[in-house]
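Q: A reviewer asked whether we had any structural model of the full assembly, not just the individual parts. We don't, so I'm hoping you can provide one. Inputs are below.
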Amino acid sequence: MSRGIITVLSGFAGTGKGTVVRELLKRHSEYALSVSATTRSPREGEQEGVSYFFKTKKEFEEMIRNDQLLEYAQYVDNYYGTPLAYVNEQLEAGKNVLLEIEIQGALQIKEKYPETVLVFLTPPSLEELERRLTGRGTETPEIIRERLKRAAEESRGMEKYDYILVNDDLDTCVEQFHHIIETVRCEASRNSDRITQIQKSLAEKYGN
Amino acid sequence: MSRGIITVLSGFAGTGKGTVVRELLKRHSEYALSVSATTRSPREGEQEGVSYFFKTKKEFEEMIRNDQLLEYAQYVDNYYGTPLAYVNEQLEAGKNVLLEIEIQGALQIKEKYPETVLVFLTPPSLEELERRLTGRGTETPEIIRERLKRAAEESRGMEKYDYILVNDDLDTCVEQFHHIIETVRCEASRNSDRITQIQKSLAEKYGN
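A: Here is a predicted structure for the entire assembly that you could use as a starting point for your response.
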């Protein structure tokens, strides 16, 4: 079984990252969702090892020191990060591991593991993003404006991603995501073993 | 309409390049096959502009001088090459242009047009390649051996391609080829306009 691929999905609030990830996991068994570690307290219904790995500040800082995190960040007073061990287990089992994280984390991972695939999910247009955020009807205009201001900041790093995935139709978007990962698996640089093997066997038997 | 992508398909004799190309053209209207120019004489049934663009040696050498070829090569006494004008017409019409050429030509094009996608078609194993070449029953053992010697030479450049496509099951292979091209269209580097546009509109309306 060949090792899976680490895949980061980022995108503005309201572009449907969660839905795309859920659909992908439902349709294709070769994906697994990464579980983050955090120092914040569990909320009602959150399960250890499913929602998060809950850690004390001391435990988390030890993970940082021991290089046991793929990436991490601090928000307000809490740490959030991606434990390496869980990701590696999944990759070894042949699963492509999905990480739903933001640009800083995405770029940290890409630097450490250049084979990581970074996908940025984008709405077809700004108007559509505004419409989706407003259409939820659950947030105040101030919160919506905050999210769009945040989107303006986040958009600055879009060109650092490998792929831009437009979420217009959900079904098309989920399949395109899957096709990206399948295509990445065909990259010559990820098939050195196969290439070497065919070159060697041809050379031995039919080479000059 | 967005401009199409130049796609080169190479691979050993017996890996089914022709069949893959035919199936792709049949199933997906966004592909067009490039037509080569040659100085060799038309064979029975060959049509000008369909099988080849037939040129005199003088005409062909003028095309070389005027940089009107994407790539060209000389075999025995004849020139073979890919006229730029036809390819450009198809690209402008939004078609992805397929070129079934060998590694020297493929690398010539990639150097001039780095946005070209190079796909190398390979059998699942050497045994399978031998089986397919023998199974045709139309060639002598000497010719089969010549083809395999040629494959040994051609295999040396495999790692210079962008993608390695295994032709195990034809249907899977044709769809994977199509997915490669769809995925390439999602590359951030090919979506600068879309990225700039969303960054600009977000910044203007919600930026600091």
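A: Points you may want to mention in the reply: The domain at 6-203 of chain A is CATH 3.40.50.300 (Rossmann fold). Strands of chain A lie at 6-11, 31-33, 37-38, 53-54, 69-75, 78-83, 96-100, 117-122, 163-166.
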